[in-house]
Structure formats: C-alpha cells, structure tokens
Amino acid sequence: MTNESITYRPIRRSDYSALAALIDTSWNYSELTSSFNAKQMSYAFLFSSLAHQSFTQVAVKNNKPVGVAMGRTEEVPISHKLFLLPLFFNLIALQFTADGRKAFQSFRRNFHVNKSLLKQTYETYDGELVLFAVAPETQSMGVGSQLFEDFLKYLRSQGARTFYLFSDTSCTYSFYEHKGLKRTGVITRKMPFLKKEISFFLYRGSVADLLD
To answer: pLDDT band for position 192 (50/70/90)?
Structure first.
C-alpha cells in the first residue's frame, strides 16, 4: 500500500536504529539527558515493545522509517521474549550515571502507573496498541491514520473485539480521541526525571466501532 511515496510493511532489523531515533524524537529524551542515556532509553522502549508485540507495521519514506505501530493480541510468540535480553542491557547501561538512574526509576514508575490504570477499569481486553509513533514531518500525510487502521484490521483478523492503549500528556493523545477511543482511566504523578507532573491515560477501543 502506498500513500504519496510512503510504503507500509512489517518491521526489519535494519529499522531498529531509525525507530530508536524516532522514539527519541517523539518522547524528547535527548532534551532531558545526555545523548548516551537518551540512546539507552530509546532502545529500551523499542526492545520492550518488540518483546510484547505480535504485530508490527512500519511506514517508510525514501527508504527511511517514518512511523511505526506495534500491537498484540494475547498470543505473543515466545520467541519475542528474546528481545528482553537487549532491553535489560540498555536498562543496566542506565545505572552508570545519576541521570541514567533517574531515567530507570522513571521507567519503573511508568510501568506501575500503567498497571494501576488497568486495575481501575476491571475489564479484560483482547488486544493492546503497544507502540505508536510518527515522525513530525509526516503527521499531516495520513501516516498515523494508515498505521492505526492496519492495526485495527490485524485485531479483527485475530477475532479481537476490544483493545487498550496507554498515553499521557507528553504525547499527542488527542489523536486517539479524534479516532473515537474512550478514555477510561487517568492517574497524575510527579515525574522527577521529567521535572514536571504528568497525567497518564488509559484508552479503550472497540474494533467494530472504529472500523465501521
């Protein structure tokens, strides 16, 4: 499928570096810490997502990844757990500096907040949108909408009816509201590493409603 010279395909190992850079840009890691720590954080986010996905779709323009969607149903291949090894390597690398240790604690706090958000709803979901990022220069070209639709079609092909995703005030969460997802949980926490207070959100989506 193409869209103004943009193609869509599953992830390749050769995409990792560009996708880590996209994650860095999307979450502003390089503005918060050293380039070394920002790189470790970006790759940790990438490998964590790879370890928990059963679907990937990458948008490519001029041979460069400019967007990515990763998601899952409950059936995540066991082989994907191998991505936990480089994840742990990146997290360990963060322990060598004070800033890195603060970043590691931020990862932990985010993880616990997400678990608390899920407990607020008392609902079981069929799938999750694990990672979603689009390069700023392509956000007006429909890349995000195409990636999101491809994820929904994957869920439908697996018989999934509902899914969830996490977002927060540091992301463009209005995209999900525009698409029709319902915010079902919110938790606000002070994040020392980010030097500000962040509101974390849980969104719920119905595959049938969003594809019809």
So the answer is: confident
Given the structure tokens 């560009």, which residue do they identify? 18
Domain boundaries, the chain: 2-211
Topology (CATH level 3) of domain 2-211: Aminopeptidase (3.40.630)
71 forms beta bridges with 55, 129
Q: Residue 57's beta-bridge partner residues?
A: 69
Count other Cβ atoms within 10 Å, centred on residue 66: 22
Question: If you search the block for the tokens 């990844």, which residue do you land on?
Answer: 65
Distance between alpha carbon 63 and the CA centroid of its chain, in Å? Answer: 22
Classify strands 196-206 and 6-9 as parallel, antiparallel or unpaired: unpaired
Residue 109 neighbours by CB distance under 10 Å: 17
Tell me the pLDDT tens digit for each residue of 79-102. Answer: 999 999 999 999 999 999 999 999
Q: Whole-model pTM? A: 0.93
What is the rounded CA–CA span in Å between residue 134 and residue 203? 19
Dump pLDDT digits (tens) for 45-91: 999 999 999 999 999 999 999 999 999 998 888 999 999 999 999 99
Q: Following DSSP, what letter does each residue of 70-127 receive, concatenated?
A: EEEES---GGGGGGHHHHHHHHHHGGGSHHHHHHHHHHHHHHHHHHHHHHHHT---SE
